[in-house]
Amino acid sequence: VRVAVFISGGGSNMVSLLDDMAREGHAGTPCVVLANSANAGGLARAAERGVPTAVVDHRPFAGDRVAFEAAITTALEPYAPDMICLAGFMRILTAGFNDEWAGRMINIHPSLLPKYKGLHTHARALEAGDKRHGCSVHEVTATLDDGPILGQAEVPVLEGDTPETLAARVLVQEHRLYPAVLRRFVTGDRSPLLLQS
Ligand code: GRF
Q1: What residues correspond to the site Raises pKa of active site His (predicted)?
Q2: Measured between alpha carbons, how far apart are the two ends of the chain, in Å?
Q3: Predicted complex ipTM
Q4: If I label 30, which of 87, 143, 161, 186 is the partner at 20 to 30 A Cα–Cα?
């Protein structure tokens, strides 16, 4: 299964996915890492792993999401991906693009969905006084952070946690969860995976 990974920043989740796909018995192979900015640090990390990279800067499209996504589709063509993993990709995709990739595009979100869709998830969990927090991998649908859940990993919220300390604890679990879910997803296994920590 040819896997495209979309990033916007450092790509630590992308690195975890690529490194796991390089191990034995994985039915997925990374065909391209695509970023919406040439400054995305993950591009160098993909290149040093020998994975092709592509950049489609969203800024020239200034809010014309459909035109931006058409440029993405064109950029993907040479790599012929079978599916897309969004990994720290910070652009919202339209219903049209989601429909085109329905059932073939997954995302990792740093909360225990359906709680805390959107941004600032760690601060919101602290604000709410939650004792447990975590991350979720889900199928992407037209509604933001809303598709079927494929996996979750939980972490404890500790005394004195800040959004930064909590985010760091969650990120460690993201790097466990996302590869574990992708390994199954590419075999057609959609059964939800719950990781404890
Ligand atoms: C992190 O905050 C992570 O929780 C979320 O996207 C951000 C960047 O992740 N998934 P990455 O290091 O670029 O994968």
Answers
A1: 145
A2: 30
A3: 0.91
A4: 143
